[in-house]
Specification:
- Helices cover 33% and strands 12% of the residues.
- The protein has 370 residues and is of the alpha/beta class.
- It has one domain: pyruvate-formate lyase- activating enzyme, CATH 3.80.30.30.
Length: 370
């Protein structure tokens, strides 16, 4: 099936908040000169008067015939050189997601389209097997969850992440997973098996402990309590788990830093990290609209604080500084985080996964003898 879609313009919500979705707009990318897809305001008013509230936005999934599955990374400030994304777009709908601009490459909006018009790569496991079998391949941990969440809701149907992990378990290939979904526990049998051989490490992202705020920020992700429970369940199964307090949004989620770290420590997390919110390309205007919709009383304060850490801009794209905000406010967060981590007793252990066990697969599915 073609990877290019032409979305129904009626899904544009023009200032109306769609229940269960994160973005409040469906703007397209000016970078690619794509046409605007905002529904006419008069039409929306008339439709509401006649038909009532707009219908619930449905998730549409298209199959994407990918040619490769391993994405290579050469960014000097990212600690992995290869990753897998079995899905494009993410139903979690996190308004702050830095991956939203990638949907523009499909002639789709980084707004509502990103969380409702998704792509799945059904041959992901087959492609991985082929790439791991190449004579030139050299193992290093494969990162999953670096762009869109491998355990977003559609994983419950397609199970592509499970299939990828099965190939990695078979070939004894190390993997790291970052997710904000308790659905990861559906694969706890496979993950625990890999953990026994030091082949997997997990990061659970927790943004807030307030379920109502979470439902606005990341409407289809697991609740904060379920994520904390997932940490505990994975730790009990012998998995190395860290908590990622990410992203931190000033005047919105920063008040939960200490409490998240304390709860993660109680659940057995072995490390804790944080990332300040990033607003690349189309994410910035989407986030601004979201702020005006949900937090009009502090929208200006939030953006002013973000800009104070990003050299006066909404976003700093430069290597290293994009991950390390500058200024007084950033220094305060660093200090708070360090003190909270020390008080919690999180040991800050690094997962050094074992690459020496890797066994290349044969293309017919049978392992080679040598």
């Amino acid at each position: 099936m073609s990877s290019r879609l032409h979305p129904d313009p009626t899904i544009a919500i023009g200032g109306h908040v769609a229940r269960g979705r994160g973005a409040t707009a469906n703007h397209t990318s000016a970078r690619f000169r794509l046409p605007e897809r905002q529904a006419d305001g008069d039409w929306l008013d008339q439709a509401a008067a006649i038909d009532g509230a707009p219908p619930k936005l449905r998730t549409h999934v298209s199959m994407l015939a990918a040619r490769t599955i391993l994405s290579r990374n050469t960014s000097p400030d990212i600690p992995f050189d290869r990753s897998i994304n079995a899905y494009q777009g993410c139903e979690h709908g996190c308004i702050y997601c830095y991956a939203r601009p990638t949907h523009a490459y499909h002639d789709l909006s980084p707004g509502i389209d990103f969380e409702t018009r998704l792509f799945a790569k059904p041959d992901a496991a087959k492609l991985l097997r082929r790439e791991l079998a190449a004579r030139s391949y050299r193992p290093a941990p494969i990162a999953m969850g670096t762009n869109t969440d491998p355990y977003q809701p559609i994983e419950g149907h397609y199970r592509l992440t499970r299939q990828i992990l099965e190939v990695c378990a078979e070939t004894r290939h190390p993997v790291t997973i970052t997710t904000k979904s308790a659905r990861i526990c559906d694969d706890i049998d496979l993950i625990a098996d890999m953990a026994r051989d030091n082949l997997i490490a997990v990061q659970i992202s927790v943004t807030t402990l307030d379920a109502r705020l979470s439902s606005t920020l990341e409407p289809r992700a697991s609740t904060p309590e379920r994520r904390i429970d997932a940490i505990a369940r994975l730790v009990a199964a012998g998995v190395h788990v860290g908590v990622n307090v990410s992203p931190i949004i000033p005047a919105i989620t920063d008040q939960y830093i200490e409490a998240i770290i304390a709860r993660a420590a109680q659940a057995g997390a072995r490390s804790a990290s944080w990332i300040m919110i990033r607003l690349p390309h189309e994410v910035a205007p989407l986030f601004r609209t979201w702020l005006q919709t949900h937090f009009p009383d502090r929208a200006d304060k939030v953006m002013a604080t973000i800009q104070s850490m990003r050299q006066g801009r909404d976003n700093d794209p430069a290597f290293f500084t994009r991950m390390k905000p500058q200024g007084v406010w950033a220094d305060l967060v660093r200090t708070r985080f360090r003190i909270a981590r020390q008080r919690s007793g999180i040991p800050q252990e690094r997962a050094n996964l074992d690459c020496s066990q890797f066994r290349p697969p044969a293309l017919d599915g049978q392992l080679t003898l040598f």
